[in-house]
Design a protein that fits this description.
Length: 211
């Protein structure tokens, strides 16, 4: 039974992911990593990675032969700033760095580029009255996958609803729930607050939004 398990009973994660919120999910009976905007998580264990998406995109990437995979959660398509200039993992807010770092982690731990398969979710228009970040995120991830010669298995993007995503890298299974009943100020406000925060920081002016 998963109920009552504490963090200390979870399978070990790679050191760089110690900050990720992990817990035992009583519904799936599996250890679960919950990622927030600007985070990603990679694992070789039988785990679930979950997040809630509004305008953001999550790419689920796995090596189908060694069953190592991960999921990211990013808000903005591209930054031209060198990733070495970022502190405290802030680069992962941008799609190009979020994809690069996650794929490199998979490859460093036994994955092969030719075996990678990708599923993509999110990019909803939930920030009313603002620039359509979701649309630009979709355009970015589709172009990125094509340019990098990666294999896109499936996608569920666009629309006006937030999504809850649960990804299982070991099997590649994804569960998607569109939050029709929760399309309210909560997720919209989270995205607007996060968007404002990350576009007014020290790297302002280095963002490309595919105008």
């Amino acid at each position: 039974m998963a109920v009552g398990y504490i963090r200390e009973n979870l399978p070990s994660c790679w050191q760089e992911f110690n900050h990720i919120n992990r817990y035992w999910d009583k519904t799936t009976g599996l250890p679960t990593a919950k990622i927030l905007p600007g985070e990603y998580y990679v694992t070789s264990h039988n785990e679930v990675i979950t997040t809630v998406l509004g305008s953001c995109i999550s790419a689920c990437v796995r090596d189908k032969t060694v069953n190592i995979g991960g999921m990211n959660h990013f808000m903005l398509p591209i930054s031209n700033t060198n990733s070495d200039d970022f502190k405290n993992g802030s680069a992962e807010r941008y799609g190009n760095f979020a994809m690069e770092k996650m794929i490199n982690d998979i490859l460093r731990n036994g994955g092969r580029r030719e075996n990678l398969e990708i599923k993509v979710f999110g990019g909803g228009r939930v920030m009313h009255g603002m620039t359509d970040v979701g649309k630009r995120n979709i355009q970015f991830i589709q172009e990125y996958i094509q340019l990098e010669g990666l294999k896109l298995l499936s996608e569920d993007v666009g629309g006006i609803y937030p999504r809850k995503v649960m990804y299982m890298p070991r099997s590649g299974k994804v569960l998607i729930k569109k939050l029709y009943s929760k399309h309210n100020a909560t997720i919209e406000q989270r995205d607007e607050t996060y968007f404002t925060q990350i576009t007014k920081d020290d790297v302002k002016g280095e963002i490309e939004l595919f105008d």
